Amino acid sequence: MTSIEKRYQAFCETLPESVDVEAAKERLLKQHVETPSWGYGAMGTRFYTLHKPGAPRNVFEKFEDAAQVQKYTGIARSVAIHIPWDKVDDYEELKQHAQSLGLSVGAVNANLFQEDDYVWGSLTHPKAHVRERALAHLAECVDIMNKTGSTILSLWFADGTNYPGQDDFRARKHRMEEGLAKTYAMLGEGQRMLIEYKFFEPAFYHTDIPDWGLATLYAKKLGPKAQTLVDLGHHPQGTNIEYIIAILIDEGKLGGFHFNNRKYADDDLTTSSINPYELFLIFNEIVAAEQDPAIELDIAYMIDQCHYIKPNIEAMIQSVVNIQTAYAKALLVDRKRLKEAQENMDMIEAEECLVEAFNRDVTPLLEKVREELGVPANPRKAFRESGYMARIIEQRSR
Ligand code: PSV
Ligand code: MN
């Protein structure tokens, strides 16, 4: 018996009888977290962009870095791209490159916020020629999906106004509905669009899709290929995100996540770095739904982070591991005990049931999962010791 196996056996003995640890392990072996191409490049704030030695010079190198995250975690086998940041002449070549690294192209993120034309909106713009331009960009993104085998069109709109009276709210709503319907019609078999919301920024008076309610209203009107995307950094302080997750799951509209963490605004910090209990409670809702045979889930777990100062690859591994840890803890919640406590209206017992699961050290289970996935027991440490960073700093400075 290996030492990992021994620790795992001892760990299993500490678990409540009603917890099915083998089923939890199976779920963890199938877990998939997508990383974003833009999380590997040199990102900054509006004040400064740090020049990171070894930063990828193009999307091909971004995929090479992402392959390291997959190599050491075993659960990050796809990479989201952002257009035009990751625009290439030959998408077949990009697809092949991804495959040669054991990766695939994940969500295609449209960019409707980096043109002068869009400061009054993209799909909501008062002028038809700008709305047409936005639609042409969305058609280009769907074309890239077709060429790369991607199944997700990820939509975030910076659309909004900066001052009262700037534009007509209801007219903008109608324009958004029309533009989204035209985009929906572009989707092929097996493809879906995820509508992301954000309550403010860059618009400071109103945002056209500010919250999950409106994103979901649009997704419902559009049909089954449209769902809501929850970016953890896009809510006002104190929002109960796990409650939003429960409602979206129940409505069949939870399409995916953009994982990150925030302290003040849309900070794009490492997932779970500020509020690990929140991430655990989100996964608690997901696991509860996974164990309900009446519920069908198809959730895209994606990271959307900007590592302004941290080394990108290590920070991404940290995030993937934090997401894996939250999921593992949620999988080991004693649901029988929780249900009984809820039925008995025993709030302390119910809360303790969650707190105990959150406080449990799941390292032995994760080490066992990693052994079965064929990756190191400590992905971040193994990556740091691999010498990859020194190699790319040298190669990419030539
Ligand atoms: C906007 O803040 C956002 O969360 C959207 O997902 C964008 O695509 C991404 O960040 C750009 O970094
Ligand atoms: Mn996002």
Task: Write a short abstract of this structure.
The chain has 398 residues and is α/β, with parallel strands linked by helices. 47% of the residues lie in helices and 11% in strands.
Question: Explain this structure to me?
Answer:
With 398 residues, the protein is α/β, with parallel strands linked by helices. It has a single domain (31-333), classed as TIM Barrel (Alpha-Beta Barrel), CATH 3.20.20. Helices cover 47% and strands 11% of the residues. The protein is built from 15 helices and ten strands. The strands form two sheets. Strands 1-2-3-4-6-8-9-10 form an eight-stranded parallel β-sheet. Helix 3 links the parallel strand 1 (35-36) and strand 2 (78-83). Helix 9 (276-290) crosses helix 10 (312-331). It is globular and about 65 Å long. It starts with a helix and ends with a helix. The mean pLDDT is 97. The site of alpha-D-psicofuranose has 9 residues, from loops.
The domain tally reads 1
State Rg: 22 Å
> What would CATH call the architecture?
Alpha-Beta Barrel
Calculate the terminal CA-CA distance, rounded to whole Å. Answer: 47 Å
- The strand count comes to 10
Total of helices: 15
Class of secondary structure makeup: alpha/beta
Strand count, sense and barrel status of the largest sheet are:
8 strands, parallel
- Spans of at least 5 consecutive residues whose pLDDT stays below 50 are none
Order of SSEs: HHEHEHEHEEHEEHEHEHEHHHHHH
Helicity level: 40-55%
* Average pLDDT over all residues: 97
Note the beta-strand portion.
5-15%
Corresponding CATH superfamily? Divalent-metal-dependent TIM barrel enzymes
CATH class: Alpha Beta
Shape: globular
Could you tell me the CATH topology label.
TIM Barrel
Bound ions, cofactors and other small molecules, one mention each: alpha-D-psicofuranose, manganese (II) ion
